[in-house]
Amino acid sequence: METIRMLVDNNLNCEKSYAQAVDLLNDGEVVAFPTETVYGLGAVATDEKGVRKIFEAKGRPSDNPLIVHIGTIEEVSNFIEEIPENALKLMNTFWPGPLTVIMKAKKGLLAPSVTAGLTTVGMRMPNHDVALQLLRKLKKPVAAPSANRSGKPSPTKAIHVEEDLQGRIPLILDGGATGIGIESTVLDVTVNPPVILRPGGVTKEMLEEVIGEVIQPTKSQETLDTTPKAPGMKYTHYAPNAPVLLIESDQAFVGEAIHELRNEGHKIALLAPLSFENIGADYFFPYGDEGDKEMMSSKLYDDLRACDKTEATIILATTTSTEGVGAAIMNRLEKAAGGKWYNR
Ligand code: AMP
Ligand code: MG
Fold first, then answer.
1. Which ligand has the minimum distance to the alpha carbon of residue 121?
2. Are residues 32 and 146 in the same domain?
3. Alpha-carbon gap, residue 42 to 224, rounded angstroms
4. Is 122 in the pocket of ligand 1 (CB under 6 A)?
5. Is the CB of 116 under 6 A from ligand 1?
6. Which residue, 20, 27, 43, 335, is most buried by CB atoms nearer than 10 A?
7. For residue 184, what are the contacts with CB-CB under 8 A and spacing of at least 6?
8. In the listed set 222, 253, 287, which residue is the last one of a domain according to the structure?
9. What would the pLDDT profile of 139-160 be if each residue is shown by its tens digit?
10. Is residue 75 assigned to a domain?
11. Same structural domain, 20 and 98
12. Is the CB of 105 under 6 A from ligand 1?
């Protein structure tokens, strides 16, 4: 299959590109498109044949459910048994935006693979002009996970989608680099208080301002049987080819680590704030200024992917505090590293 990448830009006349995407989706095909978090790989959420193609193209395990994307809040009630009051407040506050809300699904409407056998479904309205135009022209819900091969970092540019899915999907709508750069917050409102299944751009603090107490499980709580989980979080994620080691953001310590690792014969890629530029890594990928978490999240996956284009045999990634969006960043970094830290 040939994969076509089409530029969709506000300044161009893109009607034809959208029409082609809508036709493909209506024909049971998959289409990659940008959102404000990462690129998604979508299919019509009620079409089992189309949805299965997502799993095939990505190599995604079939027990990992998909998020359903919609273009208007009104569509939620078509697919949800009963919308809890706190969910409605959150939708009105954060949609369109990077918040996925898990609710009880109406039976028999969504393609079975979307929910992977669960009775619940996650829904969100993306805050991106291309995604919203596509959804509103299609007038159907779109099930879409991130548009990467399973296990790889999520795509934040159309070129990343091309690298992973070239020849496996018919169309990529190219809307440039995504803004936030890490996936949506996933919040389960079927339990009380609601539980964050995956931290993201909408933080615990932001949620609590609207609905009161929200649980963000600690790492040890996450492993308890009683803690609700996102099925997808048990899989390897966001992993570049070379092993990633986390390291405290301390220049002297990172400098020593580079020295030691080089003595062991390693070539080192370093992901760290700009001020770490001259401490001697073989390849340097700056996060931006120290403490600029928005920049860090928007660059993280691109940097992890860029490491694959170097000859680095080890990737050192400096960490940040878990305050605000730092919780989401650290969640992704921990997964990329498989929980491993640099030890002297
Ligand atoms: P992705 O589509 O790759 O961004 O991943 C979506 C995440 O949301 C995965 O971790 C899924 O397991 C999770 N998810 C989707 N639907 C549900 C659901 N109904 N209940 C719990 N987690 C879900
Ligand atoms: Mg994903």
1. 1
2. yes
3. 33
4. yes
5. no
6. 43
7. 37, 67, 98, 99, 100, 124, 198, 200, 201, 202
8. 222
9. 999 999 999 999 999 999 999 9
10. yes
11. yes
12. no
